[in-house]
Design a protein that fits this description.
With 161 residues, this protein is mainly alpha-helical. The protein contains four helices and three strands. The chain is globular.
């Protein structure tokens, strides 16, 4: 991981973003996989998406599917646009404030899906995932995305180093 200073507000109001090559590679790969998930699945077919697309009516499956069709399309379009911005920004050295906000939303969505799949809790510890290499690597990705989100928030709020 890069240092927390990988994103810094510049005097002109833009942000300088200095991602290491391995970070760019990981984020590019994860964004591609997440795009495939978002376009292939729905909260009905993949429960890990329910945090991103909260159900309107859990007591009426027909009404819920109708809601997914109406509202879900707009939400999905927004999430795919944020992902597109993240993918573009991964290769950029200078971001606008709008870029940073879209990246924050995309990274948070990724974290929510991974956290749901892993059943991460506030008090989760890396040792819980040590016995399963796939879950361990997913938790490591979750931890990296948590760190990245925090550094994006810090840069936006001006509380970064």
């Amino acid at each position: 991981m890069g240092d927390r200073g990988s994103l810094r507000r510049r005097s002109d109001g833009t942000f300088g973003w200095n991602l290491a090559k391995n970070e760019r590679d990981v984020l590019t790969h994860v964004a591609k996989d997440f795009r495939a998930l978002l376009t292939a699945e729905t909260p009905s077919s993949d429960p890990s998406l329910q945090r991103l697309f909260p159900p309107a009516r859990t007591d009426d499956p027909i009404e819920e599917l109708e809601y997914e069709r109406k509202v879900g399309d707009g939400l999905l379009a927004a999430k795919l646009e944020q992902l597109t911005i993240l993918e573009r920004c991964v290769g950029s050295r200078v971001l606008t404030e709008e870029d940073v906000l879209a990246c924050m939303r995309a990274v948070n969505d990724l974290r929510l899906v991974l956290g749901t799949r892993l059943d991460v809790r506030e008090d989760s510890d890396p040792s819980e995932f040590a016995g399963d290499p796939e879950r361990r690597s997913t938790f490591e990705l979750y931890a990296y995305l948590s760190w990245l989100l925090e550094s994006l928030i810090d840069a936006m709020s001006g509380s970064g180093p």
